[in-house]
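Please, does this match?
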Amino acid sequence: PWWRGSAEVQEKIRAATALAVRGEIFRCELPYWLADGTERLTDFALSPVCNDDGDIIFLAPTGNDITERKRAELALEEVRQEAETARVVAEQANRSKSAFLANMSHEIRTPMSAILGYADILAAHLQDPDDLVNVETIRRNGRYLLELLDDVLDLSKIEAGKLDVELVPCAPVDVVSEVHSLMEVRARDKGLAFIVEYDGLLPATIHTDPVRLRQILINLVGNAIKFTEHGEVRLMIRLLDARRPEARLQFVVTDT
C-alpha cells in the first residue's frame, strides 16, 4: 500500500479504521509516496457509508494533496520567526542605546551642573560688566549643552514611542525670549543678526508644552544660523484665527 514503510502512518490508518467502523469520521494529515518515491502530504479522511437501515456497508477514504500548501505555511512560519528574531534584536539594541544615552547624559550633566553652579556663585561676586557678560556666556552655553542632551534623549524616546508631552499654560513671549537670548549669541558669533518679530498682539498665555516648543524653536533657528553665511535669521510669531475660540500661534523662521 501507499503507506508502506511508515509505522506511524500504519498506526493512524488502524486508528482511523477503528473509529470509522464505529460510525465516526477520522481526519488527519498523512504522508504518501508516488511511484517514483516522491513523498507528498494529503489531508486524509476515512468516513463510514451506511445503507438505508443505518448499517455500515463500507469505509470511504478521501484525500486532498496539501503538499504545496504546507510548504507555503512552513515558509511563512520561517519568515515570521526571522521577523520575530529581528524584532527582539532591534528591541535589545534600542534598550542598549537608551541605556548608553542615559548614562552619557548623566556623566555629562553632572559636571556641567557643577560648572553652572559655580558660574552662578562667581556672578554673585563680580562687579565688572565685562566679567558678568563672560560669566553669562558660560551659563548660556552650559544651558544650551544641557538642552542638546535633552534633545538626544528625546530622540531616543521618540524612536521608542515613549516621548511624553505635557500641555500646560505658558507665556509664549517668555519662551521666545529664552530662545532669543540663547540663539542671539550664536548668530552674533557668526556675524549674523537674529531678529524676533511679533506680528500683532499675542495672547498672554497659551496651552502647550513649553519645553518641547522651546526645543523646536531652538532647532529651527539653530539650523537657520548653521546654513546662513551672511545677513540675518528672523523668527516671526503671529496669531492665527484670532476670532475663533481655539486660536493658534504660527512660528515662522526665515533666513537670507
